[in-house]
Write a structure and sequence with these properties.
The complex is a heterodimer. Chain A is an alpha/beta fold. Chain A contains 27 helices and 45 strands. Chain A folds into six domains: about 1-130, no CATH class; about 140-295, FAD/NAD(P)-binding domain; about 380-515, Rossmann fold, CATH 3.40.50; about 525-635 and about 785-860, FAD/NAD(P)-binding domain (3-Layer(bba) Sandwich), CATH 3.50.50.60; about 640-785, FAD/NAD(P)-binding domain; about 865-960, Alpha-Beta Plaits (2-Layer Sandwich), CATH 3.30.70.20. Chain A has a five-stranded parallel sheet. Chain A has a five-stranded parallel sheet with strand order 25-24-23-29-40. In chain A, strands 31-38-32-33-34 form a five-stranded parallel sheet. Chain A starts with a helix and ends with a helix. Chain B is about 35% helix and about 25% strand. Chain B has a four-stranded parallel sheet with strand order 2-1-3-4, with helices on both faces. Classes of the chains: A alpha/beta, B alpha/beta. Chains A and B meet through strand 13, strand 14 and strand 15 of A and helix 3 of B.
Chain lengths: ~950, ~120
């Protein structure tokens, strides 16, 4: 969010409605209405004075109505734009023309009641809809006593209650009597998988978030007793199953399969009545009931669809196809996130990147035509070399700091120190007018070091550094002292001590800044081409997307044909024809001028780093070396045949075998009884995880069998049917078509035995409490997906893998297709088992991320990187081994082993510097000398002075000794 | 003083209330379950009064919802019969009452018992 706010190429329009969208020749004309904010974002410094003095209470919608806020407010401190706004509905002045207290208290005079709605026309090339979801309406929740009993909460409300910045500072209390609850029940599938409220789809995320919330609740209060009522446990995502099981084991949650019919209140307790799986009727008492509400389409979905001219599906989400998951029915308009269908954060982030790839493909001609690039004046080298001339600025932050810390006292104290040329206090250091003044002051006083005592460098350092660069000063010659968080906020009750501490902090910053050296932003050129490893549907789509965005692609496949696993899929559950789709893709790839396809080829060696990889490709005859800037690893995975079942390919087959048989084998109609076994070998048997695709695959094939011969009996033995999202529709249909579903327990798996010519399946049915014996004509195993154990690519690129063996992403939620090695992206089955639409979105996301590097042409490193003093380095190699980003390599310099930093890969974490036995490594901005003098200044300036003198003297003496 | 005692004779299928449901009541609630309210005899009702109950509530299923067709109607007649005997021996006949509650809905059952308890306690 912060990054978005800071980018000069992203214009954020908040409080804006889309009025009209008109299609033009090469894009769209969008008419928007920007509603007034009544506070000028350019002047607002987010000090909070207006909210403090605002007399009007308003319901806090950000905290889902659990508490009150003011008419002038900001929803949460990290909001972008970081600017307050005035709520039109509750403001006294806007409704009754009185009050206007805020205009008087606002320091920077940012409040402007004369603002009027503004109509704007935007010319755009493409549109991405990320409208998200809305909550389940209250009428649905009423059935469960929501609104009637105060202690029935939705999961959203609990989420806010748990939050430390929430209405209760993270204390879990019952709204009815403010007591701490002891027994809490979670009811799943509220407003999902329910025909009576028009929401027959599964919301996909609730199973997982319920267990997350329950875990957090338990962390708050270990004595809590939490029961979760499930229908099916649908934790199908990457690593979710393991997380679920661990949480249940660690926290001792009670998991009950069942859906309570209603919620009653007896005394001060809530009563749930339900029927267990064994058929027993039970009543239990709880202090609090949480409804795990699902995701609903936006309330005004129809209106949005009309404005943009797109189609919705039967559930009022955007209609998309399996083979084009982010394309709406209008060309040039894409959809990402929950408006396409219920989905979790990683998948939404992936889809968003995929949408970016699509946009980049169609707008490649116009790339860089409207981008703004910031230019800085050259640095004044002479000034930097001179003795330190330090400017110290102490920020009032309105009353945020000045209300506690006596800033004038700090200023007077700091003014006397050596090398301090200028010490001033400012009202708002981050305000635009001060930044302009700062630039002037740097010129006027010839300052070459700046200390700003204000808030946290985490949010404001880049802003100040930018100003320094604009003034021709190196960004490394700057230090912040955080006297807001560390003094004014935490010691608000003790102003004297807070002032003392502020003095300490500023003094320390002063000591550090004297020792700081200028930092350089390194740039590394990027070879504008990509290597895609793997010629499955993932690799093909990735190659096409990158090529469409205008870059060379080398596509490597070890087999003699493109297509991968998709070749074996004959039809899709949603009805599209995968064969036609695949054929078109392969044709496109083969005819694309920017793609070079290497079949029967293996990757022999990969060397280099982000932007500059060199790879040796080898086929039977010859070797070829290619240079490229990025790598996309789409190496795929294979179906795993478990050893516990008598798999023979005839009577006992896998789902993929069945698919082939259904299409090709004419004699199939003779088969009268089919048993499908879900999770064969998965979820704790031989593979520990859920493979996500097998449930829909089984439903797809079962429905196909019923379609071909409706007399054939089909049994599906399952643990949980994970027909998440809109796949729930097919589960319902399968039930309607008379397919028999029998649940089995994880510890009592079905037994498949061969008897004579036939097969016998024995399974324990927990509902009737007995073992059932079925004699089918065909047993179909729904087997999992396994990452190949021997994968040379993983070793070559040093890619980390998950416990399950799949490739690991850099961050599950924020960077789902990147790896810890820069310039290497992962997608497809190699990332995790997933169905086709998700693979396609993920592949596009990887292509988008790869093209960011290719389009930029250079990699800019952070200035904070490690540098190695070659003279001191003894070549032990500890740093190279420890570096988590493989950014240090050992090279030979004049026959000696020396460490060398690959600047493009270094992240400046400092692991190497802290482990170097000879202190040969320094991290930019945190050199040993600077940090040491900062620490010494903590004890007092005199000590620092003495130490420096001693050092200087010592060095002189050393020199003398040497000379002698 | 010991808590007053209220007896509830009911059809097994009317509820699955537990002691916890009546925890906050100002009196002792004794529930006796019968296979059907039709099998509750006048003697059973009078017996409760003999055992120091201050009131007896008979609960059957809603009309026309009885699994045995007319069990709850039978119970209603027997309560009327019991009321006559009570009048004869000088006890307020309102202390015995019949109630029809939805099947398997403990919430409604608990509410009915609560109303009855209030009525009885107001008589004191």
């Amino acid at each position: 969010m912060v990054e978005t706010g800071r980018s000069p190429n992203i214009e954020i329009l908040t409080l804006t409605d889309i009025e009209k969208v008109e299609k033009e020749e090469d894009g769209y004309r969008v008419k928007v209405k920007i509603k007034p904010r009544y506070i000028d974002p350019n002047k607002c410094t987010a000090c909070g004075e207006c909210m403090k003095y605002c007399p009007t209470l308003a319901i806090d919608t950000y905290n889902v109505g659990l508490t009150f806020t003011r008419a002038a407010r900001i929803d949460f401190p990290q909001a972008i734009p970081t600017c307050y706004y005035i709520d039109e509905a509750s403001c006294l002045y806007l409704n009754h023309e009185t009050c206007r207290i805020c205009t008087n208290v606002c320091g920077p005079k940012a409040i402007d009641f004369s603002q009027k709605p503004e109509i704007k026309d935007l010319e755009v090339g493409a549109i991405v809809l990320t409208i998200g979801f809305s909550d389940v309406p209250e009428s649905v929740l009423k059935k469960y006593g929501y609104g009637k009993y105060e202690d029935v909460l939705t999961s959203m409300e609990i989420e806010r209650l748990m939050c430390v910045s929430g209405p209760t500072q993270g204390e879990i209390i019952r709204p009815s009597d403010f007591k701490h609850p002891k027994r809490i029940a979670y009811i799943q599938c509220i407003g999902s998988r329910n025909l009576t409220c028009d929401r027959p789809y599964c919301s996909s995320v609730c199973c997982m978030y319920a267990i997350k919330e329950a875990s957090v609740l338990k962390e708050h209060d270990p004595d809590l007793d939490i029961t979760l009522f499930y229908m099916d446990i649908r934790t199908q995502g990457k690593g979710f199953d393991a997380a679920f099981n661990n949480a249940v084991k660690k926290y001792g949650f009670k998991i009950i399969r069942g859906r309570p019919a209603k919620v009653d209140k007896v005394g001060d307790k809530l009563v749930l009545s339900y029927v267990t799986e064994e058929g027993e009727y039970k009543r239990d008492f709880y202090d609090m009931v949480v409804l795990s509400t699902g995701l609903s389409p936006p309330e005004d979905a129809e209106k949005i669809a009309e404005i943009f001219g797109i189609d919705l599906n039967e559930y009022r989400f955007v209609a998309t196809k399996s083979i084009a998951p982010i394309q709406t029915s209008q060309p040039g308009i894409y959809v990402a996130g929950a408006f396409q269908g219920p989905k979790d954060i990683p998948e939404s982030v992936t889809q968003a990147s995929a949408a970016a790839a699509q946009v980049s493909e169609i707008l490649k001609e116009a790339r860089f035509s409207a981008t703004i690039k910031k230019e800085y004046p050259p640095e004044e080298k002479e000034l930097i070399k001179e003795e330190p001339r330090i400017g110290v600025f102490i920020c009032h932050c309105g009353v945020n700091i000045a209300g506690v810390v006596k800033v004038e006292e700090v200023r007077n104290y700091i003014e006397k120190f050596p090398n301090v040329v200028l010490a001033e206090t400012v009202l708002y250091a981050c305000a635009q007018d001060f930044l302009e003044e700062l630039k002037k002051k740097i010129k006027e006083y010839k300052l070459n070091r700046i200390v700003i005592a204000a808030c946290t460098p985490r949010t404001h350092e880049p802003l100040f550094q930018d100003t320094l660069r604009e003034a021709g000063l190196n960004l490394g010659l700057f230090e912040m002292a955080n006297i807001r968080d560390q003094c004014a906020w935490v010691h608000s009750d003790n102003p004297d001590k807070a002032t003392e501490k502020a003095k300490d902090l500023v003094r320390m910053a002063l000591a550090k800044v004297q020792k700081l050296e200028p930092l350089n932003i390194h740039t590394v050129k990027v070879t504008p081409s990509a290597l895609v490893i793997g010629g499955g549907v993932a690799g093909i789509t990735a190659a096409l997307s990158i090529a469409e965005q205008g870059y060379e692609v080398y596509l490597v496949e070890k087999e003699n044909e493109l297509g991968g696993n998709l070749k074996r899929i004959k039809y899709l559950i949603t009805g599209e024809d995968p064969k036609v789709f695949l054929k078109e893709l392969i044709e496109k790839v083969n005819n694309h001028p920017k793609i070079k396809v290497y079949l029967n080829t293996k990757v022999e060696k990969i060397s280099g780093y982000v932007g500059n990889f060199t790879t040796v490709l080898k086929n039977e005859e010859k070797e070829k070396t290619v240079n490229h800037g990025v790598i996309i690893a789409a190496t795929g995975a294979k179906e795993y045949i478990p050893s516990k079942y008598p798999y023979d390919g005839k009577k006992v087959i896998t789902q993929l075998d069945l698919e082939k048989k259904l299409i090709e084998d004419k004699s199939f109609k003779k088969i009268k009884k089919v048993v499908m076994i879900q999770c064969a070998g998965s979820r704790g048997e031989e593979l520990s995880y859920c493979s996500k695709v097998c449930c829909q695959q089984a439903l797809k094939n079962a429905l196909k069998i019923k379609e071909m011969s409706s007399n054939t009996e089909v049994y599906i033995l399952y643990q949980d049917i994970r027909a998440y999202g809109f796949y729930e529709k097919y589960y319902l249909e399968a039930r309607k078509r008379g397919i028999k579903f029998i649940r089995y327990l994880n510890n009592k798996r079905p037994m498949v035995e061969k008897k004579g010519r036939g097969v016998v399946v024995k399974v324990y049915d927990p509902i009737i409490g007995e073992e059932i014996e079925i004699k089918p004509d065909l047993v179909v195993l729904s087997v999992g997906i396994k990452f190949p154990e021997e994968n040379e690519i993983v070793n070559m690129l040093k890619l980390p893998t998950t416990q399950e063996g799949f490739l690991m992403e850099a961050h599950v939620k924020l960077r789902p297709v990147e790896t810890t090695s820069d310039g290497v992206f992962i997608c497809g089955l190699a990332h995790s088992p997933q169905p086709l639409p998700e693979v396609l979105a993920q592949v596009k996301a990887a292509a988008a991320k790869a093209c960011i590097l290719l389009a930029k042409g250079v990699v800019e490193t952070t200035p904070y990187i490690a540098s190695i003093n070659e003279k001191k380095c003894i070549g032990c190699g500890i740093c190279a081994e420890l570096c988590p980003f493989s950014a240090i390599e050992m090279v030979k310099v004049e026959k000696r082993r020396k460490a060398k930093v690959i600047t493009a890969s270094c992240k400046g974490c400092g692991v190497c510097a802290s482990h170097c036995p000879v202190f040969a490594i320094d991290v930019g901005g945190f050199s040993t000398e600077a940090v040491l003098s900062q620490v010494q200044a903590f004890k007092g300036w005199e000590l620092l002075e003495n130490q420096t003198k001693k050092n200087r003297n010592g060095r002189k003496e050393n020199r003398k000794l040497k000379e002698e | 003083m010991a808590k007053p005692k209220i007896a509830v004779l009911c059809c097994n299928y009317t509820n699955s209330a537990t002691d916890e449901d009546f925890k906050d009541f100002p009196c002792e609630i004794v529930i006796k379950r019968f296979p059907c309210s039709g099998s509750i005899e006048i003697v059973d009702i009078l017996k409760e009064f003999e055992d120091d109950a201050e009131g007896v509530l008979v609960c059957g299923c809603e009309k026309e919802k009885c699994h045995n067709k007319t069990g709850n109607l039978r119970a209603e007649k027997r309560v009327l019969g019991a009321k006559k005997y009570l009048e004869e021996i000088g006890i307020d006949p309102e202390r015995a009452q019949m109630a029809f509650v939805p099947r398997l809905d403990t919430g409604a059952f608990v509410e009915t018992v609560k109303d009855f308890v209030e009525k009885i306690l107001n008589k004191r």
